[in-house]
Design brief:
Chain lengths: ~250, ~325
């Protein structure tokens, strides 16, 4: 099993506050890694390190190394290519002020794909995988910003898939989506696993249990434990992990 | 064990006072307190409305007075004829065209620089000492009195750049004057585009420029244009910056034909409405009141028309806002 993403002693601080504290983590290729942990435990910061959107956070300092396919991504110059390889869905639904079609075609166009037929195919595939196709196929010219919150969230997912990334980072992707649609998207994610590595940050502990091959538990910026999901949920080595996954956190 | 639950401790809060004299028949009849509140609400609303309405009194008053006084000269020929007989007769065509070219050239100079600088400051510049100094400079530039701009124009454009006293030098001076406001309004328009849109694009590997070109500018261009158009009226009304840099009392220009539309070359001195009004009112004897009031009315009408157009454009574009 090949290691796709590797964190080596990564410490991230925002001014005086330490968001990630000496995290070392290996993410195997073509698996789903679940990341769970209470609010403020550094889950989102960890994702932001993978596609370097941490660069946009004013005052954030990163120490240590993050390697993708053995390459230190904080030393590469073409950060745009990195972000094309790493799809990212943040919890806030964002429809760009463009048509539904152009929302999904946006990134492929910027990356140089202009063939109309290929774009049509790609847009349809991504919208189907995000479980949005049936709802928007007759109104592709409608503004993405006019969709409902849950639809915009799925539009965000479709956009993340539009570059066929090799790593897909999902941060609370199901927060605005109804449970039935969430289940369908989870099925899609299990299929997508054969194409890409998926990192799934979730507050729904059971979602991690359903989907993830391996699960990591973060608390207060530290990686407490990472193991096979079944192990984490049944015989966690650390007492903190056990209390969190069983809901006995008070 | 019933009653030994969560709500056992203090007694429930006292009910709100019902108000004296509320008839039992109508539970919605106002109490004395509610009547007092209603009275205060009404007074506040009327006072605020009266103060707001008083704002339009000067505008309407000035316009009405000018209109009445200028009525005898308000004919198409007043606009289309050149001043005659030492400016005591004829129309205002030459200064009108002069103002048009001054404003046009000043915006051609200032708008690209101002917009590009605004884009840089809002989209690229980090929060460091250099940016702060530039921001401070822009703010101060906006507060510089126009007569100081005039002296800067004399030093920089008329003398140093060797333009002499000319249409070009005067336009550049007006451009410098309008520049800081264009920068500021551009930045405001850009920052009205939510940050989430930019981050969504950056997440997908779009460069900053791709994001600006495809998302930020298309959704802020209306605000940017409105800011630029509002500077038309400011540039048209100013006298001081052009006084020493290119505008003169009188230039004989062609009355007919093509030349009357392009009466001034870039290096020529020109007439301007604001300057013309100043001249008529203080420097020339025997100018009838009607001609002076007519000139003032045309100037203020021009400014009001441009401002109204800009406000209309803003309303129209806001109604098409995409989020």
């Amino acid at each position: 099993m090949r290691i796709h993403v590797q964190f080596e002693h990564v410490t991230v601080s925002y001014g005086a506050k330490t968001a990630l504290d000496d995290v070392s983590l290996e993410i195997p290729e073509k698996q789903i890694l679940g990341i769970i942990g209470p609010a403020g435990s550094g889950k989102t910061t960890l994702l932001r390190c993978i596609n370097r959107t941490i660069d946009f956070v004013a005052g954030a300092k990163v120490r240590g190394r993050v390697l993708i396919d053995g390459e230190d991504i904080f030393r590469i110059r073409n950060v745009y290519e990195l972000r094309r390889r790493v799809g990212m869905v943040f919890p806030l639904p964002v429809g760009l002020p463009l048509s539904v079609y152009e929302n999904v075609a946006y990134a492929p166009r910027r990356a140089g794909l202009h063939d109309r037929h290929e774009l049509d195919m790609l847009v349809e595939t991504c919208l189907r995988q995000a479980m949005l196709w049936d709802e928007v196929k007759d109104r592709m010219q409608m503004l993405g910003t006019k969709l409902s919150g849950g639809q915009q969230q799925r539009l965000t997912l479709a956009r993340a898939l539009s570059l066929r990334p090799e790593i897909l980072c999902l941060d609370e992707f199901s927060i605005a989506i109804d449970p039935v649609t969430t289940m369908r998207i989870e099925d899609i994610l299990r299929e997508l696993k054969s194409e890409m590595t998926i990192v799934l940050v979730t507050n729904l502990v059971q979602q991690a249990r359903r989907l993830a091959d391996r699960t990591a538990f973060l608390s207060a910026g530290r990686l407490i434990e990472v193991d096979e999901t079944e192990t984490i949920f049944t015989k966690a080595a650390n007492r903190l992990t056990e209390r969190y996954v069983t809901g006995d956190v008070g | 064990m019933v009653g030994n639950g969560l709500h056992s401790s203090p007694s429930p809060p006292a009910p709100l006072p019902k108000g004296e004299g509320r008839p039992a028949a109508n539970p919605f009849a106002p109490s004395a307190l509610e009547k007092r509140k209603k009275l205060k609400e009404t007074v506040a609303q009327w006072v605020l409305a009266a103060v707001t309405l008083s704002l339009i009194v000067p505008v309407v008053g000035i316009l009405a007075y000018l209109l009445v006084q200028a009525w005898p000269v308000l004919t198409p020929s007043f606009l289309l004829e050149n001043p005659q007989n030492y400016m005591t007769a004829g129309g205002i065509w030459a200064p009108l065209v002069g103002t048009f070219f001054l404003v046009l050239l000043s915006l051609l100079a200032a708008a690209p620089i101002g917009i590009l600088a605004g884009v840089y400051l809002n989209e690229y510049a980090g929060d460091n000492w250099a940016t702060r100094i530039i921001n401070l400079a822009v703010m101060n530039l906006a507060g510089v009195p126009s007569i100081v701009h005039a002296l800067f124009g004399v030093g920089a454009f008329v003398l140093f750049a060797g333009m002499g006293r000319s249409l070009l030098a005067a336009s550049c001076t007006l451009g410098v004057m309008t520049l800081p406001v264009i920068i500021t309004s551009t930045r405001e328009a850009l920052s009205s585009v939510p940050m989430a849109f930019r981050e969504a694009c950056w997440n997908m590997g779009a460069t900053r420029w791709q994001t600006i070109r495809t998302i930020v500018l298309p959704n802020s261009i209306s605000g940017i244009l409105t800011g630029v158009i509002l500077q038309v009226s400011r540039a048209a009304g100013e006298t001081a910056p052009i006084l020493f840099t290119g505008a003169v009392f009188f230039v004989p220009v062609a009355d007919h034909g093509w030349d009357s539309f392009f009466p001034y070359g870039l290096g020529d001195r020109c007439m301007a409405l604001s300057m013309h009004l100043f001249t008529l009112a203080t420097q020339v004897r025997g100018v009838s009141d009607e001609v002076q009031y007519g000139t003032a009315l045309v100037l203020i009408g021009l400014v009001l028309a441009v401002n109204s157009f800009s406000i209309g454009l803003r309303v129209y574009l806001r109604s098409r806002k995409k989020w």
